[in-house]
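About this split. The held-out portion is used to measure sequence recovery: a designer receives only the structure tokens and must propose an amino acid at every position. Recovery is the fraction of positions where the proposal matches the reference. Here is one held-out target exactly as it appears in the evaluation file.
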């Protein structure tokens, strides 16, 4: 399948402290390739603009993308999302966490094709909504600002204030039968398990 760049920004949120992993998750390697590199390789054919939001900008100076600090240091995912939307020069942004090594261009494209008329286009997996694998419009910024003033930090807390399109897991399964798109790595045990799965897949 050929993918063409759309007028969206691809945003990687890479500001987490990674306390359970013990190191910056963006640079963990799956199949010998750092997760951040895997994400950017998916992003480049899809998006006109790419942004990384981080509290450690120097780590990303060699990736030839725009890198921004959180507007509020250590403000969590909601602040990072707001920062990405603030700096994006385009109306819509696809936003993803830095610890998701199995993104699928086909799944992202499917979301992109369903954004019109909505402020948030978010998939729903068996674990619930996946707000760090979703598309947001700049129209979300006012609702996010209101949450931040109330000291609320969960990304989905502002969804009730905007127009949301939920993409059901049944729609994603034909494109990603194991729903790997939503895998995020939080612990060493998870890293080991998925690295082993990667090797097994190569041997199949």
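Reference sequence for scoring:
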């Amino acid at each position: 399948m050929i993918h063409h760049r759309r007028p969206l920004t691809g945003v990687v949120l890479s500001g987490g402290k990674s306390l359970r992993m013990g190191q910056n998750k963006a640079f963990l390697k799956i199949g010998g390739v750092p997760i951040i590199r895997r994400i950017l390789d998916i992003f480049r054919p899809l998006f006109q603009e790419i942004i990384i939001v981080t509290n450690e900008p120097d780590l990303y100076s060699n990736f030839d993308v725009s890198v921004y600090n959180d507007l509020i240091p250590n403000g969590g995912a909601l602040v990072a999302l707001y920062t990405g939307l603030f700096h994006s020069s385009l109306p819509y942004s696809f936003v993803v966490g830095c610890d998701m090594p199995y993104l699928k261009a086909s799944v992202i494209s499917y979301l992109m094709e369903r954004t019109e008329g909505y402020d948030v286009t978010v998939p729903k997996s068996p674990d619930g909504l996946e707000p760090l694998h979703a598309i947001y419009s700049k129209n979300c910024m006012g609702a996010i600002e209101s949450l931040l003033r109330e000291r609320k930090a969960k990304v989905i807390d502002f969804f009730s204030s905007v127009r949301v399109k939920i993409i059901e897991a049944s729609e994603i399964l034909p494109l990603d039968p194991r729903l790997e798109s939503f895998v995020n790595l939080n612990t060493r045990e998870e890293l080991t398990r998925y690295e082993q799965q990667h090797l097994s897949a190569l041997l199949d």
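Annotator remark: The beta strands are 6-13, 29-30, 33-34, 47-53, 66-68, 92-97, 120-125, 128-129, 133-137, 164-167.
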